[in-house]
Please model this.
Amino acid sequence: MRLAIAALLLTACGVPDGALEGRPCPCIEGWVCQDSICVRERDAVDGGPVDQGTTEPDQGTPDMFEAEDLGQDMPLDMGPPGPVFAITCESSTATFVPDATGNGFDGICRGGGCPPLATEGAIGSACDFTDAVHLEIDIPAGSRLDVPASGADFSLAFWFRPDVFTFTSSFSRPYGSSTANSWEFYFSTTMTGTRPTWWRVTDDSRDDLHAPELTTTGEWHHMAVVVDATADEVTLYFDGVEAGAVAGSTFLYDDHPILIGADENDGVRDNHFRGLLDELYFYDRVISEAEITELATRP
Ligand SMILES: [Ca+2]
Ligand SMILES: [Ca+2]
Model:
C-alpha cells in the first residue's frame, strides 16, 4: 500500500495545475510536506492519493490515479488538462531530457549535447545553457503540438535566468526556410534593449510583445503566452503579470521542431541562449491567470 501511494504521488507529478506537485520540501502556503515532498493540504488531510479536487467521500470506484480503491480517499477531480509537454529539467540522459507529463514529447539533445542540470533551478533543477557550446533541445513536431492555423488555443510557459544580455533565443518554433518563426521568445539588445520579447508570424504580418526591460543578469523570471482563439487574442505574461496583448490567433506551422535554447535561421541553428532555462510547458488550451500565477510562483 505504501508503495502504491508513493507511486501514485509520483504519477501525479506534472499533471493539471500541478507545477508544484511533488516538489521537494519546503513548501509554499497551501501545501504541506509529506515524505519530503509537497502535497496539497487537502490530500494530506484526506490521507488518500494526491488528487486535484474536492474532499467529498470516495464512492469506491478506482480511478486513473488509484492502483486499487483505498476506501477513505477522495474522488478524482480531473480539473483542467495538464500540459502537453513539460520539460522540467529534473533529469536527463546522454541523449534526451524527458517530458515529465509522460506524453512522450521528450526533448532530443542536439548541437553540443544535453545541457547539464543546474541545482539552482527555478523549481528543482534547471537546464544549464551557460557555456557557449551551442546546446539545443528539439521537441519533434507532433499532432498535439501542431496547432491548426486558426481557431485553436494554446499556451506556453517557462522560466529563464539569463547570464548574458545578447541576441539569444530561448524557446522557439522555426518556420519556413529563412529566418521566420511560428513563434519565438528572444532577446534583442539592439532592437528592444534588454526586453525579453515574444513574436509570431502570421500569413501577412509579424507581431511582437515585449516584457519589461531587464537590468540585472542572473535572476529568474517567468514568461507565459496565452493564445485565445475565442477572444482572437494573444497575451504575454511576465513574472505572472500581463505585459501586453495583440489581436489575432492565426499561426503558420510546418514540420520544424520546437527548439529550446536556440533558434534556426536559414537552416542553421543560431542565437543560442546563455543562462538557465526551467519548467518549459506547452498546453493545447488557454491557461487561466490563476494557473499562470501558480506557474510563476517559486516554492
Ligand atoms: Ca526544474
Ligand atoms: Ca528563426
